[in-house]
Amino acid sequence: MHFRYRARPESPWWRAGKGALAGVVGTVVMTQAQTKLLPRIPEGKAPKQPRYPMEPEAKGENATETVARRLVEGVAHRPLPRRARAAAGMAVHLGTGAFWGGLLGLLMPRRLSPAATAGWGAAWGAGVWGLNDNLVLPLFKVGDWPNRYGIGVHARAVLAHAVYGVATAFALRELLSPRFVLGPGLGTARALAPLARALRPAGRAAASRPGRRVAARSAPAIARRAPPLVARAAVGRRFGPVKMGAWGIRAG
Asked: Is the distance from CB of 66 to CB of 58 less than 8 angstroms?
């Protein structure tokens, strides 16, 4: 007998939320690549001196710290302390990754092979680099236009965003998998609640001293028979794909 699972269609808001969470994961992976691996690529000679950002406070800041400082100064009308700029810039960094991840959650298909997921992620990362770094930042004068930076700067940015896109796509692929669907799992748990209440006396009896003696005597026999059954369920030869638990964890 085979049990089949069919995931319920998710709302766009739910998919966007999962995409935002995947975007945060991708941003964390991208940050590690930016700080540990990509600085080894030489920046190269810049064709022209970048003009933006123009304000003296931006000296020593990265783009996200500049955005955070401008937001605080423009909305709260107060200066952002320099000791808080790194944390505020990281918040902007994660928020930007979550935004683009949310858009990916609305567009990426649910079921993709690993190769197709990597392709989606690399293409998405390249698109984010093209729009965010080469259009949005220059328009808001957070950075300059791409013709004023060296080829090494662009190589670092493209590789960093490719890492972000691939990591976000694979995280989203896992979040969109049926085993992470919350609704059917909650329905299963709700249906099993009366059975759990009915088995409560049996559990108390098993926890008593005679019950523990019986369990100690029968444990070796169970240990001999349980692994083959679990292995058959895991490969799906005997029981087929079965979703169990409140989160729909795959058992077969």
From this structure: yes
Q: What is the pLDDT of residue 53?
A: 93
220 class by beta-carbon count within 10 Å (0-12 exposed, 13-18 middle, 19+ buried): exposed
| Residue 213 identity | R
Distance, in Å, from the CA atom of 99 to the CA atom of 117, rounded to the nearest integer, reads: 19
pLDDT digits (tens, 9 = 90+) for 66-96: 999 999 999 988 999 988 999 999 999 999 9
Q: Are 3 and 241 in contact (CB under 8 A)?
A: yes
155 Cβ contact list (under 8 Å, min separation 6): 41
Long-range Cβ contact pairs of 34-39 (< 8 A, separation 24 or more)? 34/156, 34/160, 38/156, 38/159, 38/160, 39/156
Q: What is the CA radius of gyration of the chain?
A: 26
DSSP 8-state symbol, 130: I
From its phi and psi, is residue 113 left (phi > 0), alpha (psi between -120 and 50) or beta?
A: beta
What span, in angstroms and rounded, lies between the C-alpha atoms of 186 and 25?
26
